[in-house]
Amino acid sequence: MKRISQYFLQGLLFLIPLFVTVYVLYWIFIQIDGVLNLPVPGLGFLVTIIFITLIGFVASNFLTKNIFLLVDRIFVRLPLVKMIYTSIKDLVHAFVGDKKSFNRPVQVVIDRKSNLRVLGFATRESLDSIGIKDSMAVYLPQSYNFAGNLIIVESEQVIPLEADPGEVMKLIVSGGVSAG
Q: What phi and psi values does residue 19 have, to the nearest 5 degrees?
């Protein structure tokens, strides 16, 4: 009986991540199809991928680049829109593009006595520009959540990690259970 329950548990451990992933992808497909009101499942996702790629092509074209820059300048100047737009833009650019910010994994010593440490990403080496001396900014992503906290710590508390940033992010987001 013990062996049967072990097989059952192993089956769950295999099937739950598989089915949850498939369900989330299915849900995304259905949501996009619903927005675009297309009768063929998955066609909306394909249309979305093509549309985004087309926008990327147009945005990188010399003739239309100025139009996108104009839209960007307008959004940056509107009071409430600026806060939302620049925050989202900076967050997206932190993960992809030329200005990746989460590429310097670190551990921060919180309490030397108990050797309590947290993992995060150094985002600013110096905060002198805002009047905080000898300190740096470290972003701490949260596990199983699309959120995090920015902490300010003395530079001497930060230890750079010689690790792949993607692996460190995966470790943090998974709550430490994902191993590379």
A: -70, -35
Which phi and psi (to 5°) does residue 132 adopt?
-110, 110
Same domain for 68 and 109? no
Domain-terminating residue out of 54, 74, 95: 95
The predicted model scores a pTM of: 0.54
Task: For residues 90 and 116, state if they share a domain.
Answer: no
Full domain range(s) for residue 75:
2-95
Q: Is 7 part of any domain? A: yes
Beta pairing partners, 127: 132
Q: Which residue has the tokens 């590429």?
A: 103
User: Using one digit for the tens of pLDDT, what is the confidence trace for 119-146?
Assistant: 888 888 888 888 888 888 888 888 776 6
Q: In which band, very low, low, confident or very high, does the pLDDT at 13 lie, cut at 50, 70 and 90?
A: confident
Average pLDDT, the chain: 81
- The DSSP line for 82-108 is HHHHHHHHHHHHHHSSTT-STT-EEEE
Domain boundary residue among 76, 95, 114? 95
Positive or negative, the CA dihedral 58, 63, 68, 71 is negative
Phi, psi of 176 (to 5 degrees): 90, 0
